[in-house]
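Re: that backbone. Tokens:
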């Protein structure tokens, strides 16, 4: 089971539209973490260019392609947590007295994402693992590029002039290669898809999972944010399977009994059955 925290109004919208909203990655509360992943890659590529003369041509082209990734990458995200009845989630995502936590079947979410070619993975909180994954994406790109005609050991034996000639020739070769293939485009796409999975370790207790939709072929809608509009798309999860919702937890609420009865009525009228309704064990906040 994975859980989605929302308000009573949000719950009603989900049930009525049979869909969840996926918000544009640049308009999330923690949108800076998306940039954090790109900065990891920029640092790695810059380090190759500055400190590895043998591979400097690759590092330069790699850094250039990262800089071309647009700030408004067309990526939309919706989030779930492994944890239900979590105080930080009630406080962070739900208005007082209006919190609802919806329990979704993880396997059905996965099937929905597979059919729609969306990425569905758990967020990564450990910096060591984050860096390792970025290095893997860089390494995959490197191995797809033309390889050197001489080994690094042989390169180190060259005189200064021959070293410069080698570096310039390799730079030109990589540049021509990048213009004639989609290897660096694939690298950028992999980075764009991975970036939203990076989360600050301070949010570890949430154990968040995300559906990541890159350049979705669907209508982009807008809703009111705090002083701006938030672009979002609809993910028709409940149309995909009405069995996807397994339980509902009512958050701390002074009108918990009325809330439960009204939720039961809505579910019945919308054709949702066999859904357990529970109450938060956290005292009213």
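Recovered sequence:
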């Amino acid at each position: 089971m994975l859980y989605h925290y929302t308000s009573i109004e949000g719950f009603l919208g989900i049930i009525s539209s049979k869909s969840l909203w996926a918000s544009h990655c640049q308009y999330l509360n923690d949108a800076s973490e998306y940039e954090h992943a790109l900065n990891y890659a920029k640092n790695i590529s810059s380090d190759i260019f500055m400190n590895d003369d043998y591979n400097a041509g690759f590092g330069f082209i790699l850094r250039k392609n990262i800089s071309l990734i647009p700030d408004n990458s067309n990526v939309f995200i919706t989030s779930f947590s492994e944890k239900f009845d979590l105080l930080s989630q009630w406080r962070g995502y739900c208005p007082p007295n209006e919190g609802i936590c919806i329990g979704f079947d993880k396997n059905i979410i996965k099937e929905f994402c597979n059919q729609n070619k969306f990425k569905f993975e758990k967020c990564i909180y450990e910096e060591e693992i984050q860096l390792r994954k970025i290095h893997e994406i860089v390494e995959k790109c490197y191995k797809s590029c033309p390889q050197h005609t001489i080994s690094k050991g042989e390169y180190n034996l060259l005189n200064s002039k021959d070293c410069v000639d080698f570096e310039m020739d390799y730079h030109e070769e990589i540049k021509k290669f990048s213009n004639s293939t989609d290897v660096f485009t694939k690298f950028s796409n992999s980075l764009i898809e991975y970036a939203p999975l990076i989360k600050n370790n301070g949010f570890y207790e949430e154990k968040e999972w995300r559906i990541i939709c890159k350049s979705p072929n669907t209508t982009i809608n807008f809703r009111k944010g705090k002083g701006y509009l938030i672009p979002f798309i609809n993910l028709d999860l409940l149309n995909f399977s009405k069995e996807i919702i397994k339980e509902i937890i009512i958050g701390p609420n002074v009108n918990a009994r009325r809330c439960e009865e009204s939720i039961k009525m809505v579910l019945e009228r919308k054709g949702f059955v066999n859904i357990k309704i529970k109450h938060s064990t956290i005292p009213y906040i």
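The first strand starts at residue 2 and ends at 7. The mean pLDDT is 92.
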